[in-house]
Amino acid sequence: MAVRNPVYVTSGGQIREMSTSDVENVQARARYLYSLNPSVTLDYVSDTGSLDAISDTRYKAGVANVSATSDPGAGSSADPTTTSISWDKIDQSSASVSQITNTDNISLPLYKDGSNDLRAMTIADFYDTFVFPAVSTLTVGSTGAQQGGTYFISTSTSVDGSTLVNANPVFRDTRIDQDAFTRTGIPETPDQPETITNYYLHRINGVETTIERPMLALSSGNIQRFGGTNFDNVLQNAIRYATTNETGYQITYNINGSGNNRGTGMANTILTDVTFTEYYYKANVNSYARQQFVTGTPSTADTYFLKINQV
Question: How many domains does one find in the chain?
Fold first, then answer.
């Protein structure tokens, strides 16, 4: 189990070891191939997603005290209260992936050993050289093309270099609409919210990388260059398997747990420095009412982050 420098054939027909940048290009291609068919996916669901639920909390006005005969009296109306809306819209799933096979130890790229002989990489070598470094780049906090196939949160429905998972928000921050309540409107509906911010789930698009294709041993004892599709299939299978099965490299997502933040935090804002004010209104001789409204200053009560982690 080690990092190897596989060999490839130059345009002039010479066998050479891959440089560090050549190996890094293969790692980048592994990430691109992952972006085409990620093994760990997040989806929007209407309810009961597998990630933790998060709450949008807001004030609502008190229930009005209405009388058809006389003023109900000062202090007779109910106090405003808070209400919390649970958002449980993100669901994670992992594909079932079988590990690549290395039939007769000749199915993986060749490298030069200490005696300058050509040997095939073991599966462990292949993972150490190409796959594990690729996964570690997928799970950083950045949301560029090198994190293709992974997810982040944005307040926009359109972000360059990514695909919107669903047009519905995975979280909505609301507050009581202070301007919606009027004295002459009593009795007002207590819960009249306004949307402050919607938050949406996106998946990052990958960018294709051109690579030097390594050499492969044949059962006949000859060697040849890997076919492009063949090598891509091996590389894609390996990174999909690692992200769902290899301890320390399995990708998982959570809310406010371990790992790196992905995208903007989802803010739950609420009014602070709150004042409850009771208003009296007489519409006519058959309608008297008192109701308490809420005024205050917006502030952030909670911030929820989508996290990506390797376990």
Answer: 1
pLDDT per residue over 275-295, tens digit each?
999 999 999 989 999 999 999
Distances from the Cα of 72 to the Cαs of 75, 78, 81, 184, 293, in angstroms?
Answer: 9, 12, 20, 16, 16
Instruction: Quote the CA–CA distance of 274 and 293 in Å, as a whole number.
Output: 10
297 found inside a domain: yes
Say if 247 falls within a structural domain: yes
Residues β-bridged to residue 81: 60
In this prediction, residue 106 carries a pLDDT of 66
- C-alpha 237/C-alpha 36 separation (Å) is 12
Tell me which residue range forms the domain holding 35: 7-310
pTM, to two decimals? 0.95
Residues 165-177 have a mean pLDDT of: 98
Burial 243-255 (b: 16+ CB within 10 A, else e): bbebeebbbbbbb
Residue 1 belongs to some domain of the structure = no
Q: Alpha-carbon torsion 256, 145, 207, 217, what sign? A: negative
pLDDT digits over 31-77, tens only? 999 999 999 999 999 999 999 999 999 999 999 999 999 999 999 99
Residue with tokens 């008297």: 288
Closest CA to 138 of 152, 153, 118, 128: 152
Q: Is residue 179 part of a domain?
A: yes
